[in-house]
Amino acid sequence: MNTLNIENRRALPERRHYDLQTLKLCVTNPQRMDARRSPDRKFPILDRLDTGVVTLAIALMILSVMDSIFTLTIIANGGSEVNPVMNVLLEKSVTAFTIAKMSLTAIPVLVLVATANLKMFNRWRSRSILATMVGLYAGLICYELLILSYV
Q1: What is the pLDDT of residues 141-150, one digit of tens each?
Q2: Where does the pLDDT of residue 40 fall: very low under 50, low under 70, confident under 90, or very high at 90 and above?
Q3: Phi, psi of 120 (to 5 degrees)
Q4: How far is it, in rounded angstroms, from Cα 81 to Cα 98?
Q5: What distance in Å separates the CA atoms of residue 71 and residue 105, rounded to the nearest whole number?
Q6: Domain residues of the chain, as ranges?
Q7: What is the secondary structure of 19-61 as a DSSP string?
Q8: What DSSP string describes 131-149?
């Protein structure tokens, strides 16, 4: 291919396309750790994730599971759910409560992991928000352990 054709192609708008095959390759054979093109740097959603972001995501999900277990234990020992929405779900069934609680954690975690290098609200990087959420959940777990120590 000659140089003129390459330059003409680069002058065109976005040549790449994204579909389910792209998503499959991102999961099965990730390639990009850093953005090469300036549009990719503006919206840095990459194939490969660094271990710190993955560790934060796993930690947050583990803390969420612990929160569910501790909440159900506290309720079984005479406590009550403070969140009115979660209380309605809990009155419906423990399964509905657990699914909602895990979903309300997992969906934001997926978004924050996918956009780990992106600035949210033009201020904080998503990975910083993820780390803050881990800290808040850890504080919640400590509080629940304190409550459980009185039971």
Answers
A1: 999 999 999 9
A2: low
A3: -90, 140
A4: 13
A5: 15
A6: 3-149
A7: -HHHHHHHHHS---SS--SHHHHHS---SS--HHHHHHHHHHH
A8: HHHHHHHHHHHHHHHHHHH
